[in-house]
Design brief:
Blueprint (H helix, E strand, L loop, with lengths): L2 H12 L4 H9 L6 E5 L7 E6 L3 H15 L2 E6 L2 H11 L7 E4 L5 H6 L8 H4 L14 E13 L25 E3 L8 H10 L1 H13 L3 E2 L3 H10 L4 E5 L2 H9 L5 E4 L10 E8 L6 H11 L2 H9 L4 E2 L29 H10 L5
Parallel strand pairs: 2-3, 2-4, 6-7, 6-8
Antiparallel strand pairs: 1-3, 4-10, 5-8, 5-9, 5-10, 5-11
């Protein structure tokens, strides 16, 4: 039995979780968390961060923070599910000072288990209330909009694309869609449909898109690449992948984004966010870290390097991204996008995921 399996078995056998918590942990592929040590400050100026944002996206920013502040940062990278499972195992001995999650699925359980401290108002008020915890336990650092990515050779967005994500159940889309139903970020789309339209509508949408025989991909970036190569005509992804491909491959990259807007669940916005662990002994350092991540320097990094929507400091999105206030998303608070169990049940009931 490998290390990941042994750890998963230990968690499942050694702790008496509720059914919901047990199911959540069963989702986690408990990899050995990768430790990165950044900075060269004094021993008493250290910070441990558990991050489900990948190192390729945020490590340069964390290195800049360490250089600017003289803070030594221990960064452990893993999926959101793995991080939450690890914290549940550690319990009151939780080792991180800060948790930095790429998607909203983990916040509800961390809040329920009282892992998070309440952030001070001077930090919370830097971000619109739409993009922070209603309990003040986490705050969004950067935002991403769901979009329809399309192949520019086969699709005219003005005439070919429907007005709503719900219309991709039309049989004319058979064999033309790409999806990633096992990927956490993709699952936000049916979750948003369930929140906005109800359980029956969400199940009907899943069944309808499934009937159109979509190509299955492991993640969102694979969908965008496939659209650019003409393998598929459309897919449901986050907005920031296309700008990255265009930056790397040039303006001839064969895919672009279509923003649905008009309150459609296919236009939902979610955030990458940060919270402070209640048991930290480095509260002041942790708060300074959050403040830095909301500063103009960090927000400019999100705008220019990861092509996300900055949420603080008045920083504008880069390139030709439409302004955040123009997107007209559904009225769904990112905190609501933690209804993971109900979403997974719908996907399993439809025989879309195991």
């Amino acid at each position: 039995m490998d290390t990941s399996s042994m750890l998963a078995s230990k968690i499942m056998a050694g702790l008496q979780f509720s059914r919901v918590r047990t199911q959540f942990i069963a989702l986690a592929i408990l990899l050995s968390l990768t430790l990165g040590f950044v900075g060269c400050g004094e021993d008493d100026n250290e910070l441990t961060v558990y991050s489900s944002r990948t190192s390729s996206l945020v490590q340069p920013l964390l290195e800049q923070y360490a250089a600017d502040t003289g803070t030594n940062i221990n960064v452990k990278y893993a999926s959101t599910a793995s991080i939450v499972a690890t914290l549940l195992e550690e319990g009151s001995n939780a080792r991180p000072d800060v948790v930095y999650l790429a998607d909203p699925a983990g916040w509800a359980l961390l809040s329920e288990e009282k892992f998070l401290s309440e952030l001070p108002d001077n930090l919370l008020n830097k971000v619109d209330k739409r993009f922070r915890s209603t309990e003040g336990e986490w705050v969004g650092l950067s935002g991403r909009s769901k979009v329809v990515v399309y192949n520019t050779e086969t699709i005219d967005p003005n005439t070919d694309l429907p007005q709503s994500i719900m219309d991709f159940t039309d049989p004319k889309w058979k064999g033309r869609i790409g999806w990633a139903p096992t990927h956490g970020e993709w699952q936000i789309t049916p979750m948003a449909i369930r929140i906005e339209k109800g359980e029956e509508a969400a199940r009907s949408w899943l069944e309808g898109v499934k009937a159109n025989q979509p190509r299955v991909y492991p993640n969102l970036i694979s969908i965008v690449y496939a659209a650019g190569q003409g393998e598929i005509d459309v897919g449901f992804v986050n907005h920031y992948y296309v700008p990255r491909f265009v930056k790397e491959e040039g303006p001839d990259f064969g895919a672009r984004n279509h923003y649905l807007g008009k309150g459609d669940p296919g236009a939902v916005i979610d955030v990458a966010a940060v919270g402070i662990i209640k048991s930290t002994e480095n509260q002041d350092t942790a708060e300074r870290f959050v403040e830095y991540m909301l500063s103009s320097e960090a927000q400019t990094y999100f705008a220019e390097q990861t092509h996300e929507y900055p949420l603080s400091a008045g920083v504008r999105p880069s390139g030709d991204l439409p302004p955040l206030d123009s997107l007209d998303p559904p009225d769904i608070n990112p905190a609501e996008l933690s209804q993971l169990q109900a979403t997974l049940k719908m996907l399993r009931d439809a025989d879309i995921i195991p």
